[in-house]
Amino acid sequence: MNTGTNLLGGPPPTHLPAQPEVDAALAGGGGAEDVAAAHPAASLPWALLAERALDEGRAVTAYAFARTGYHRGLDALRRAGWRGHGPVPWSHEPNRGFLRALAALQRAAEAIGEAPEAERCRDFLRDCDPAAPAELLP
User: Fold this and answer.
1) Is 134 in contact with 52 (CB distance < 8 Å)?
2) What letter would DSSP give residue 89?
3) 62-76: b or e for each residue (b if 16 or more CB lie within 10 Å)?
4) DSSP class of 122
5) Is the four-CA dihedral 130, 128, 99, 25 of positive or negative sign?
6) pLDDT class of 138 with cuts at 50, 70, 90
């Protein structure tokens, strides 16, 4: 019998709402910088900027972009009912901007030698979804 109750006692997964205007702007060829400027509350363009900066060896710039995307994502998670812990599944596409920003923050923190922050971000990413680190971290 399915009672609809979470028998493990943890909070339910948090699913961020879709942002079709952000997705459309990026799919339509809008650069991440322009999309971030037009939609500053969206994590995905900030994560894309951070990932690009990491690929270009600009760790401090990546850190700043990733931290912005991470904090914008925390704001969105809280608005979606997240209370500071619980699953944020990678399988839910709208969650990926936040999770990518968190992974980029981990990589950037590691690159600038901020080991405690890198470890905290890695742990947080794994706590959000145990599958996410394999998808996002080298």
Assistant:
1) no
2) -
3) bbbbbbbbbebbbeb
4) H
5) positive
6) confident
User: How far is Cα 138 from Cα 131, in angstroms, rounded to an integer?
Assistant: 13
Residue pair 19/41 in contact by the 8 Å Cβ criterion? no
From CA 108, how far away is CA 10, in angstroms rounded? Answer: 31
**Distance between CA atoms of residues 114 and 40, nearest Å:** 26
The region that residue 92 occupies, defined by phi over 0 for left and psi between -120 and 50 for alpha, beta otherwise, is beta
Instruction: State the helix-helix crossing angle for 96-111 and 115-128, rounded to 10 degrees.
Output: 160
Assigned token pair, 44: 């995905």
The number of beta carbons lying within 10 Å of the beta carbon of residue 118 is 18
The pLDDT tens digits of the residues spanning 80-113 come to: 999 999 999 999 999 999 999 999 999 999 999 9
Provide the pLDDT for residue 10.
87
- Here the tokens at position 133 are 């680190």
Residues 6 or more apart whose CB falls under 8 angstroms from that of 40 comprise 72
Tokens of 99: 């999770």
Structural contact between residues 44 and 52, judged by C-beta atoms closer than 8 angstroms: no
